[in-house]
Structures
1.
Amino acid sequence: MTQIKATNVVWHEGHVERAGREKLLGQKGCTIWLTGLPSSGKSTIGFSLEHVLVQQGRMAYVLDGDNIRHGLNKNLGFSAEDRAENIRRIGEVAKLFADAGIITITSFVSPYRADRDLVRKLHAESKPALPFFEIFVDTPVELCEERDPKGLYKKARAGEIKNFTGVSDPYEAPTRPELDLKTADMKPEECVATLASPLHKPGLTHNLTKLSVRFAFRPGTSLGKARTQAGRVSCGKMVSRGDPSSWTPPGPVCSCASRTRATPRPGRCSTTFTAPCSSAMPGHAA
């Protein structure tokens, strides 16, 4: 339990309501919480989804576990207490981002169910409640260890890293996530498409039901080739080589080609897809 040390503080209401920010951005904020074992693919999927949304003129931002520990949470370790504080802090930050109207994508191992439930509660208690999606990046530990792009599993097995989730620390899988991405059976572009589908719920984001799903990976390619195509925007040691913003994602993988031209706004894609999709691909109407 976090010790409350702040006293004599009063919440100061601003003059701009959430609805005003939503109208300005043309969307409603939410939090998409990616959880899973180390090397399960959370960061790769999260940054790819951000790429897709920004390409479509949506305000989106990834809060990544390693990146956050370079600054805001650099004073926290990996004990159960520090992990809880790590998630509490980022949960509060994600809530603020979502309240600002940003589609907020978090990529954290977040191994303890109680910590994730606390973040969900923070969003639910906002007035009005903020949409929160818990996404289980469901990758078997054997596959995570086989990938191991940072060599952390190898170090943990050798005893060089303590409190490593999946080796010496437990991971409590979600019991009722909004989405369960079984990455061992899915291509990266399928994960992004499936992950995009909650954004199509009526009332969540303005006009997102017409948002075309354009992937940061070309269909049928391996993960390694996909990373190269996307300008190596994935996590770990696959650091950026080239400007990913200069690479234009391919069109939708589904077979629906009926398009209607919309009046473009500055910085927004001028094409929307309104015809039903015949391929029943996740994220499209069947």
2.
Amino acid sequence: MQQQTMALQKSIQPPTVHLDANHPGFCDQEYKKRRNHIASLTTKYQGTIASIPLVQYTKQEHAVWSQVVSKLVKKSQDNAYQHHLDGLRRLQPDPGRVPQLRTLSKQIMKTTGFRMAPVAGLVEPKVFLQALGDGVFLSTQYIRHSSQPGFTPEPDIIHEIIGHAPQLINPVIAQITREIGKAAQHCDDKELVQLERLYWFTIEYGLCKENGVVKAYGAGNLSSFNDIQRCLSTKVAHRPFDIRQIIQTPYDPTQPQPVLFVVESFEEALQEIREFLSSLAIFKKPSTSRVRYEAESKARYQNKLRSTAREKKTTKDSPL
């Protein structure tokens, strides 16, 4: 596994970071230089948590982190799904300084078996999703441009730690994330596009009802203090959760989302996702019957729910 990760790392690292013309840091030469430096650190990664490079963040980067996280913590109380709040309490990221990816990865690994691996920037969807199947979350380490702290057109360390880390430390969400990745390892090109959209409109930008109130559970919404309220407002079209519609809905990752899907309950979303994945994966496993595959998936799901229920007892009263 370490050799595969090292090979993957070498294959996806660009020599320099290229920003689109509409990126807020496009004309900022110092920002580009800093991004290239942080990108170069990822080449030291050897496939283990201990080899995740430590980034010496600047005062300005700590200031951006503090500004964004302080707003997100406040807005999350009323707008985020409870699983997200529970995850933040478990992780307890420093609100004043950018945490190290190595530290967070150790915490997550002990709980769900997932680990975070550093990358220089965006990777191809196929590479990203297939890594999830092996319990590896490819993560950036740079921080968004200070001129637009409320939204980032690409994933940054705030998105990874505030948005995704609380998901990965949750056994139920980590399991369904891994299953999406497993399906990506065996699917054809058409199915891969469907999985990309499924991941996007659930793990990245999912909405759900909690006690009859729509809340955000997607990492994209929960890591943007502009989006965390916008996604729940009338500025965004809310559609009922329907995987058939989701897999036919394209998206633009560089823009705030105009359409999002709302599931009646988080558990319902996970079960529907699992049923959809079984329809893809079962045909790639000739030796496994459909009944057995679904039975195994249901058993894993129920075990994760019981594990989460036990863990919530020890974390619900902990300070954020």
3.
Amino acid sequence: MRDLKEHGGKIRAVDINHSDWDCTLERTPHSKTAHALRLGFREIKGFSDAHAENITTARTNPFTTIQDFAQRTGLSVPALRSLAEADALRSIGLDRRQALWEVTRFAETGTPAALLADLPLFATSQAEPLPEENEEVALPDMSVGEHVLQDYATIRMSLKAHPVGLLRERFASLGYVTAEQLATLTSGRRVEASGIVLVRQRPGSASGVVFATLEDETGVSTSSSGRRSSTSSGARSWARACSVLKASCRSKAASSMSLPTHSLP
């Protein structure tokens, strides 16, 4: 995803009115790029291709409300909750928290499809949409940080912000450099940096050295931690297991760092 963005590509979120099971390309007539990548339902943790097929089959015209969507697709409450948690209902005017509120009501009353299930087949096909609840509840907006955490929990990425970027003010006060800054530093300078672990490697010929590719909001860098006097066994365990690392080390050419790697404080 980062590579696509760095080459000018656009990425669009999973959405009930636009996504298919797989990721797809959409035309962008008013953009410098010809197409944008639309994330597919397969990106949602725990969501099945059968659920996606229900949506695409029922999507003969756009869904307009959560009641309309639930009735036409016949999805269960857990499937609706997965979509709400993934923030996939924005095209019908519901953000993540509002969508979760609506789905919670279905858990108590039953979905529109479930309420119509006992009607004869002909009556069900001719039934008018169920009336919507008129009661409106003012819910507090979710912060960007809350959205990002939930994005990573449901689709393992976020298009709203980079999680390390949300902590940049704190990291800057501690003297941490960004991946972008690291690329401009002279080799051998002692630096501290942090990022999400994208790739972790431990080649058999590297004498126990663990290489980790770290990503922050500005780019990627590589750190290494090995069996050296300045590197404890605990640090090596962190390097092998943590999702977010802080590297205290010496800069080298091409955005790389060497020596101790630790988990964030």
